[in-house]
Amino acid sequence: MSVHLSRRTLLRSILASAAGGSASGWFPRFAQALADNPQRRRHCVLLWMSGGPAQTDTFDLKPNHENGGEFKEIETQAPGLRFSEHLPKLAQYGDRMAVVRGLNTKEGDHGRGTYLMRTGHKPLGPIQYPSIGASLANQLGDGVRSGLPGYISVGPFRAFNQDAFGPGFLGPQFSPLIVGATDVPGATANGADGYPRLRVKDLQPRENIAANRVQDRLALWKDLGSEFLAAHQTGAAKTHRMVYENAVGLMNSDDAAAFDLTQEADEVREAYGNSVFGQGCLLARRLIERGVPFIEVTLGAAGGVGWDTHADNFNQIRQLSGNLDAGWATLMKELDERGLLDSTTILWMGEFGRTPRINGNQGRDHFPNAWSCVLAGGGVAGGQAYGRTSEDGMTVVDGQVGAEDVLATLCEALGVRSDAQQTSNLGRPISITDGTPIKAILA
Questions:
Q1: Which candidate, 336, 297, 200, 205, places its Cα nearest to that of 258?
Q2: What ranges in 37-83 are assigned the alpha helix state H?
Q3: CA angle (410, 288, 267) in 5-degree steps
Q4: What pLDDT was estimated at residue 388?
């Protein structure tokens, strides 16, 4: 039976052993063995908050100002770092989280803001920029897996900007595998067990087609495809063939079992929460265990835009925060217990923030001028807030950064150079992002 130790438990054990003089030699060798493991890989989880979350109700509260609203602050594991009272489980991991409170991005439209935050570039000109998921899958993937792809998107709501989720000039081989899209009616309806169904479309052959007929059809497809490729030596044809081969490989791979959440114990599923986001975080853990470099999980609501709280802000955010707290905190807990948190970097963000001033409908409107995102886990110097907004939350008064800087910081935390060159559809070398990494929050 395997035993998983949390980071804190492991450290306590080490200190206790050291005090007794019994750990003089084994731990350095153990740590070095982990570091030298050739199969150890970096992973990224993007927690995408569709609609734009209110920073003043989550990670940058203003309790002493009328803009602060209804929620109270609570202490976290890190002294001086405070979160919303509706994020108590996440507060226990404050020492592994860095809140960026000085974001100023100037894009207050859902479509443009989504594109900027997810690609690191403004939606201008003829260049088809890839999403950060595609870029990091390109940089972190080994390029030879025949099972799971390098970029998997769980519960996405793409109606604001389809291109912001795509591979751009990197090509369809870096397109995300979509699981339980919230912009497709019925895609995440609850199953017989009461949990949302997070399925990959067409992962299994149709029930009325026998296995031998499936194999015969695949053989015929390969023969016809080989003839076509022999006469058409183009990148598009080869890419099309590769995408289909990868899909067939996943269908026939043991890795497909990653999507079967019924394999998890009931208490584990309950801890993540009965929501698309919560079960998506559980799926993210299972995918990380199988080596997938980039997974994103979207938290919205009916229609996928739950954080777009123009009205009834506080009731909506109270419910959204409950889903966020259960899913994200349990993900960090389980990654920590499995020794995977130090090699997994988590980024929480949406397309913009929301106005500090509360409108006449008890809501908050679009606000890209001063808002927050959060980085956590591997490569992040947690337990701090970087940047500061004014007392009323309306402006950044210290540590202003942009979308490009956040994505550059994410890249550096993952061990990827943010200025790594990728060739665009116009034949030009393009950096993943042109931002400057925030050195203060890099471990």
A1: 200
A2: none
A3: 120
A4: 98
